[in-house]
Amino acid sequence: MIIKSRQKIDSEGNIKIENEDGTFHLLERKDRIKYLGVLLDETVSFKHHISYVCPRISRNNGILAKLRHFLTLSQMKQLYYSIIFPYISYAIFAWGSAYKTHIDKVQSKQNHSIRLIFFARTFGEQTESALLLLNLLDVLTVTNVYRLQALKFTHSWHKGLLPSLFHDFFRYASEVHGYHTRYASRQNLYISKVGTDSGEQTIVYTATILWDNILTHLEDLNTFNFLKHLKLYLLSEQHSENK
Fold this sequence. Notes:
The chain has helices spanning 47-67, 73-83, 85-89, 92-95, 100-117, 130-136, 142-158, 173-176, 182-185, 197-200, 203-211, 223-241, and strands spanning 16-18, 24-26, 32-35, 38-41. It is mainly alpha-helical. The protein folds into two domains: 46-139, no CATH class; 145-241, no CATH class. The strands form two sheets. Strands 1-2 form a two-stranded antiparallel sheet. A two-stranded antiparallel ribbon has the order 3-4. A hairpin with a 5-residue loop joins strand 1 (16-18) and strand 2 (24-26). Helix 5 (100-117) packs across helix 6, helix 7 (142-158) crosses helix 11 (203-211) and helix 7 runs antiparallel to helix 12. The chain starts with 15 loop residues before the first strand and ends with a helix.
């Protein structure tokens, strides 16, 4: 598979491997491959992965629809985290910055899940707000699940808990600017300039923007307390959207 820009002119890119007998083996080119449970496509749009995830959430929504008649609300929430949430959260650190049109497809499936749990209308003009129902159960939206995971990664880098491979993944603004600014003194990260949509979707860029917008007092908490307070912060933002 050849990773390329969406605007780049396609090319054959054939690769031949010479065998011991002098013959050649032509590698078959793919437009997507599955790696560690994630479908990677040649433009890194993750549209194929999302198309793979959505039907599986729909299938398990059918289980929610049947069991909701026999389980309590608390048990239904546990069931959601057992059979729906893993499809949303798995490797979202990689695909969660995909185009909004792709993410909205997963969000639509999550909305259906939460409406089933509350016996709410799932279609039509009288459909209840999924965000309101998510807030009632303190469940994060798809975008906020991504934000939580991205900030968890950035916080681990900030605390020096990641392998040395990621040592230069981010840079503090204070290391780049030779002069003191309020921005740099807050342990903000340096925002690299990007000129393409693909650049804005990289974890380096998105995590940097997210990190610079969180509350300053959260940065130096230990991992457990950071995640605890960060989830509360994200939930409070969700609740404010209903007001």
